[in-house]
Amino acid sequence: MTRASLFGVGTPEVLVIGVVALLVFGPKGLADAAKGLGKTLRTFQPTIQELKEVSEEFKSTLEDEIGLDEFKSSIQSPPSRPYTAKSEAAEPDLDEMRKASAAAAWGEQEEGAGKGGEGQTTFEETLSAPAEAAPKEETPSDLSDLSLEELQAELERRKSE
To answer: Nearest 5 degrees, angle CA 119-CA 122-CA 125?
Structure first.
């Protein structure tokens, strides 16, 4: 919901200001104050009009200097496609590119990429397969059977984990 306001002062604030002014000046004093304010504003009206004209002129000059109108027209123009249908048709198939990329990432041969031959898994199969735990070396439960070198190696392995 938007409210009309003058200088950021809404309707309730204007009413409070009016009541306070009425109490301070009284009915006759308020009329005289309004008349004086009107005369003062009428005196400054040509100056205010001139300031508005100068401000508009400055704004238009600044917009011309920085090329704001060109910027606005480029924003408002409809976006164009970077590719045409003809150039997109000339591009290789996106699925083939994905398969070749997956094959390269998983260390398969380039020739096998995208063919899905016997014994090869596709990228989608690899992603959907359950994760297998990496085989761990069996840790001996009884360390008393190990030699000194084996104990040191076991200690180093556990520190690195």
So the answer is: 100
Burial status of residue 21 (CB atoms within 10 A of its CB: 0-12, 13-18, 19 or more)? middle
Torsion of CA 143, 144, 149, 153, to 10 degrees: 10
Amino acid (one-letter) located at 36: G
Model confidence, pTM: 0.29
CA–CA separation, 105 and 131 (whole Å): 17
pLDDT in tens, 117-152: 455 666 667 666 665 554 555 555 667 777 888 888
> Cα 122 to the chain's mean position, in Å?
35
- Contact between residue 127 and residue 99 where contact means Cβ atoms under 8 Å apart: no
Which residues are registered as beta bridge partners of 6? 9
Say how far apart CA 110 and CA 114 lie, in whole Å. 9
